[in-house]
Design a protein that fits this description.
The complex is a heterotrimer of chains A (68), B (355) and C (244).
Chain A lengths: L2 E4 L19 E3 L12 E3 L10 H5 L5 E4 L1
Antiparallel strand pairs in A: 1-4, 2-3
Chain B lengths: L4 E4 H11 L4 E4 L7 H9 L6 E4 L3 H13 L4 E5 L2 H5 L1 H9 L4 E7 L15 H7 L8 E3 L4 H18 L2 E7 H5 L1 E4 L28 E2 L6 H21 L3 E4 L6 E4 L2 H16 L4 E6 L1 E3 L3 H7 L5 E6 L5 H9 L5 E5 L8 H12 L4
Parallel strand pairs in B: 2-3, 2-4, 4-5, 5-7, 6-7, 11-12, 11-14, 14-15
Antiparallel strand pairs in B: 1-8, 6-13, 10-12
Chain C lengths: L2 E3 L18 H15 L5 E5 L14 E4 L5 H11 L4 E7 H7 L1 H9 L5 E6 L29 H4 L5 H6 L4 E8 L3 H19 L4 E7 L3 H4 L3 H15 L3 E5 L1
Parallel strand pairs in C: 2-3, 2-4, 4-5, 5-7, 6-7
Antiparallel strand pairs in C: 6-8
The chains are: A mainly beta (68), B alpha/beta (355), C alpha/beta (244).
Chain lengths: 68, 355, 244
């Protein structure tokens, strides 16, 4: 099992992470906005995460930490 | 080398820099200062220093910026057009509070100009040739010996106040040979550079940043104000000038650098003809010796500024005197050098009341 | 569970000022990761240039100097000559390196100066609002090539890697891209190799990183990656152009 942690307030809503997740579980949270006024990215089905860190790799703002 | 040596001005300046502990020189060829980089290229490797000929004067001054920011005693030299190219770099060095020495062996201008001696870079040196509020400390030697002696002061002032210092010579000073002595200079105790130099943290301290960018205007203003407080200290502690025969003088000549020697000869022969002539010789062009003029103006009738230019320092003389007495000007430009007899002729015109 | 991905130590824990989706942020992290892994932070000095990345002196936890526009390679030379055992790198954009700083770039390379240049090529001037850069592509519309860059009046985009490969003093020159995860990992490898070149004292190293500028390209961050692939990569082929 792996886990991704999003530091939501650092997210600028650029969506790059949503395009690389092999499990398609990284999506934008359209129900809320962060301190910067962006919709932050999030992982919905955490249990499907394989800890590949692709999302974190393409994130320009080091929003994502991955544990495995 | 404590005994006298016959040396060309440029080479003596370079040797003096090395003896003052300068170990990094970045330069570029331009007449009439070439012997400085040439000499450095021979000597620096022998003293474990670095000589590097850059691809341009622009690159050279930015190498000086990097080396100074890394905590080194560093220098560059050039001549008029090259110094113009370095102006932006000089402003960055000022803005980052970095110490360095810049030698300008001035030549006739503007444009490509000529290669003969001139003093037509005075405004650029003293009033600031680059952008922003700042002063360069400008030292103007009138002999090879004085140039040698001033080099240690130049580096010490730079390190003491974290400012760039310019040694303003001219083609004559650079090219002529004179006996010179490299006296043991008593060094000042200078502030450490550890707090700001980029030497690598070595894991022992927070990072140092050498920078002149301040997007917040208040921060930039405060920095400028602090720097101008240091300029006040420089004005108080580093002023240098010479006053000769001014007490009884009817007219006082004002000249710096090698022109002051010509003026000195004119003064002496005029004195022999019974004309009461004095001489004020600024050695620091900035800070400008205003006090010398305030003293002389009380006793003399007029001033005659003599320069190898169309008249630049004369404006500072006028400002110092503030209209109290007439200030005349005589100059040659383009690389022409004034002669004692021409100066005497001007003196007679003034004293004879013709002008 | 163990952390397998986190902020590199030498990357300052601050919010970077870059626009959303600007890949400068990725490149900064890759430089930091390489530095951490090579364990050179303590003897590292970075030189920030002038452009969007001017504030990189706030983003790396090592000694930094901010250089005048185009002069970072000269400043780095000054630093390296004073501290030859330090690792010195510059971080420059295409305007800084390939326009005003061309002479400094070429001559640092020709001298085989033992420094590492991280060259971010996004084919535009970002910080000043989207003007044409030396790497702007033919036909590309910018604030100063409003009808599309036209070779007759505005010449051709400069291929820096190909140019530097002809210079004897270069030890390692590679062009990479951060348009997808695979290429991002390759970029990190190249950056690490460039630093290793310097550590080994082999001479001048430069990594050109194709990067995006969503704001001034007028595209979304995701579309920008596509634009980079379709337009920049054909003209700027990836690969190693020099390796001593």
């Amino acid at each position: 099992m792996a886990k991704v942690i999003f530091n939501e307030d650092r997210c600028k809503g650029c969506e790059l992470c949503t395009t690389v997740c092999p499990k398609k579980i990284v999506v934008m949270a359209t129900d809320r906005i962060n301190i910067k006024g962006f919709h932050p990215a999030q992982v919905i089905e955490q249990d499907k995460c394989i800890g590949c860190a692709f999302c974190a790799t393409i994130c320009p703002d080091v929003v994502i930490e991955v544990e495995k | 080398m404590s005994d006298k040596v016959l040396m060309k001005g440029n080479e003596a300046i370079a040797e003096a820099a090395i003896q003052a502990g300068c170990r990094y020189f970045f330069g570029y060829p331009i007449t009439p200062q070439n012997e400085i980089p040439e000499y450095m290229s021979k000597r620096m490797p022998k003293v474990g220093g670095v000589y590097l000929q850059a691809e341009s004067e622009v690159a050279a001054i930015n190498m000086v910026y990097g080396a100074a920011g890394a905590g080194a005693r560093v220098m560059t030299s050039s001549s008029s057009p090259g110094i113009s190219l370095k102006q932006e770099g000089i402003s960055y060095i000022v803005g980052s509070d970095l110490p360095c020495v810049i030698v300008n062996i001035v030549r006739g201008g503007p444009g490509l100009g000529g290669i003969q001696p001139a003093q037509s870079d005075y405004f650029q040196a003293v009033k600031g040739g680059a952008h922003g509020d700042y002063h360069l400390v400008v030292l103007a030697p009138s002999s090879v010996q004085e140039a040698v002696d001033l080099m240690t002061d130049a580096f010490d002032i730079a390190d003491m106040y974290r400012v760039p210092v310019m040694l303003l010579g001219d083609g004559m000073l650079g090219q002529m040979m004179e006996p010179v002595e490299f006296k043991e200079q008593k060094g000042r105790d200078l502030p450490s550079k550890e707090a700001w130099a980029t030497t690598g943290t070595k894991g022992k301290r927070r990072k140092n940043v050498v920078n002149s960018l301040y997007i917040d205007p208040k921060e930039l203003e405060d920095l400028n104000i602090k720097r101008f407080e240091r300029y006040k200290q420089i004005e108080a502690n580093e002023l240098r000038y010479e006053m000769i025969n001014c007490d009884d003088a009817d007219i006082v000549l004002v000249a710096y650098g090698t022109t002051a020697r010509v003026a000195n000869s004119a003064m002496r022969s005029a004195r022999s003809e019974g004309l009461k002539v004095g001489l004020i010789r600024p050695i620091t062009l900035w800070p400008f010796p205003v006090e010398a003029f305030q003293k002389a103006v009380q006793t003399t009738k007029a001033f005659l500024a003599v320069e190898m230019s169309m008249g630049q320092m004369v404006e500072d003389v006028r400002m110092a005197i503030n209209g109290a007495k007439p200030v005349h000007f005589y100059g040659r430009t383009g690389g022409m050098v004034p002669t004692p007899s021409a100066i005497i002729e001007e003196l007679k015109k003034i004293l004879g009341g013709e002008r | 569970m163990k952390k397998v991905f986190q902020r590199p130590e030498v990357l300052s824990d601050v919010v970077m000022h870059y626009c959303p989706g600007c890949t400068h942020g990725i490149i900064h992290r890759l430089v930091a990761e390489a530095i951490d892994e090579l364990n050179i932070q303590d003897r590292l000095v970075g030189v920030a240039s002038v452009g969007c990345s001017v504030f990189s002196y706030n983003y790396f936890e090592c000694d930094m100097q901010q250089a005048a526009h185009g002069r970072a390679p000269a400043v780095a030379t000054g630093i390296k000559r004073v501290h030859p055992n330090n690792i010195v790198f510059t971080y420059q954009g295409d305007g800084d390196l390939a326009a005003i700083g061309t002479a400094e770039m070429v001559h640092a390379a020709a001298r085989g100066e033992n420094i590492t240049i991280i060259f971010v090529n996004n084919a535009i001037y970002g910080m000043t609002g989207g003007q044409m850069a030396p790497t702007t592509l033919l036909g590309q519309v910018t604030q100063t090539s409003p009808y599309g860059r036209n070779a007759e009046t505005q010449g051709y985009p400069i291929k820096v890697c190909e140019m530097l490969a002809t210079i004897e003093g270069t030890a390692y020159v590679e062009r990479v891209s951060v348009d997808n995860v695979k290429n991002i990992m390759a970029t990190k490898k190249a950056i690490k190799k460039a630093f290793q070149t310097q550590i080994d004292g082999k001479g001048f190293s430069l990594v050109e990183v194709l990067s995006t500028c969503p704001t001034n390209w007028g595209l979304s961050p995701v579309e920008s990656l596509g634009w980079l692939r379709e337009n920049m990569m054909p003209y700027y082929p990836l690969g190693i152009y020099k390796e001593k």
